[in-house]
Amino acid sequence: MQRILLFVLLLGGSTFLSGQDHYAWAFKTNQYDRSSDFSDGLAIIQKGFKRGYITREGQVHLAPKFNIIDAYAEEVASAGYTDFKTMDSRSGYINRAGGWVIEPQYEVTSPFQEGLACVRLNKLWGFIDRSGTLVIPAKFTEASTFSNGLAPVQYQEKWGIINPRGEWVVEPKLDYILAEAEGLFCVKIRDKWGYIRPNGQLAIPPIYNYASSFSDGLAKVEKDGKYGFINAEGEFVISPQFDMVYSFSHQLACAQQGDLWGFIDRSGQFVIAPQFEQASSFSEQLARIKQNGQWGYISTKGKMAIPPAFDSAYDFCEGLARVQQGDQKGYIRYTPPTDEELIIDQPKANPLELTRREIKTGHHIRLQSSRFTIKVFDHNKIDGDIVSMNYNGRWLLKGYTLKEEAKAIVLNLDPNIGENYLLFYADDLGKNPPNTAAIVIDDGLEEQRVILNANLNQCDIIYFEQK
Questions:
Q1: Kind of pairing between the strands at 34-35 and 50-55
Q2: Which of 30, 51, 145, 283 could be a cystine partner for 315, CB 3.0 to 4.6 Å?
Q3: pLDDT digit string (tens) for 112-162?
Q4: For residue 29, how many other CB atoms are within 10 A of its CB?
Q5: Residue 232 DSSP class
Q6: Which sequence spans correspond to the domains of the chain?
């Protein structure tokens, strides 16, 4: 059985503000007092004491009308009102249209996760299900959301772990517990930090002055005033030698040495030298850095992607970053240099050799023939999306404008390649980002259709299997 990979990358482009900056304002938000990063296609906006949502195009999705609002999770969001005379709040949950699915009846609400949400009643926390039924009584002084069927909670000044039935999996005897990550809980025991397994068994002794949850197989810890990284066995992979570090992302971690920040690899060596006044972890292949009092962005190769030009800046989320420049505030898009992305043909190249973008989990489709046709066309609104297409390392199209009519290309599987793939590259986002393409795969016996979505930093993949 041969495994085939259809690899889809839709990258956006836009008019640069300058020939070297490689960014453009997506839209301004001066009409609002505040806004948030994007999550699940929406960002929170605030006008006075009222909050609502905008879309990635800057259009109002839900006009500001709530005092309390949170990002959507499992298709619902916390929302509610505050009496500013008494400072009492009532919160519930709304759907995408802004209608109540659970009436505002709680003092505080948290996002749903794994079908449960922690809510506060009479200054104590419990858990409700999607119908609003209180399935775990409100008896905890603090609580966290569920992850992998477990939730840390505080009861009578000590922390433990419960299951979805409210039963103790780990009795409340710890001083603090962070949410589970990569199979371990970071815990505080008598002013020191260590790690336990989900059953409460000690995994790494509490010997650190500070510790964080595991991420990408490593956790940052502090010992004797310096920070380093340990693995899941508690062994130092990177000895404590830095004044501060952030967790690894894109195989790099932001680290402070003296007054300057740089980026280290997993061996602990600086691959981007300490040279920045401040810096943050990489997000969507870009990291915020501060030089001469201004914020900009660098790439994972250490190149200046967007030179420092902003008074404040936040991470890229879903292809957009919040920034302020003088009296202008809003969101920008990043457009990588064309010569860095559209490289020359590399026959039989691994798709990861052709792009710096992250890859989604993807779709899975079975083919019945080694000869098939790919049909590609713009999905929904025709707005000028421009794409390029690469098959097994060879560019089939460059700078092609997606149309309502399908563009058909006949392809044959290469039996000498472990994973055959087709890569779509968008040279321009068009008028309504992000790019969305419809792909029809016809193997002569069956047609299958997939809708693909990707942004400047993320790819869609379709895996195929052929008998």
A1: unpaired
A2: 283
A3: 999 999 999 999 999 999 999 999 999 999 999 999 999 999 999 999 999
A4: 19
A5: T
A6: 343-466
Q: Is the pLDDT score of 49 beyond 90?
A: yes
pLDDT at 425: 76
CA dist 202 → 164, 206, 312, 365, 447 (Å): 22, 9, 42, 43, 53
Two tokens at 47? 């006008």
Tell me if the bond preceding 434 is cis, omega within 30° of 0: yes
Q: Is 260 helix (H, G, I), strand (E, B) or coil?
A: strand
Beta strands 151-155 and 158-162, pairing class: antiparallel
Dihedral sign (CA 9, 14, 18, 19): positive
Phi first, then psi: give them for residue 430, nearest 5 degrees: 75, -165
Tally the C-alpha atoms within 13 A of residue 189's C-alpha that lie toward its C-beta. 16
Listed range (136-150, 232-246, 266-280, 437-451) with the worst mean pLDDT: 437-451
Partners of 92 in the β-ladder: 79
Sign, CA torsion 24/30/35/38: negative
Q: Measuring CA to CA, which residue among 317, 215, 302, 321 is closest to residue 261?
A: 302
pTM score: 0.70
Pairing of strands 458-466, 363-367: parallel
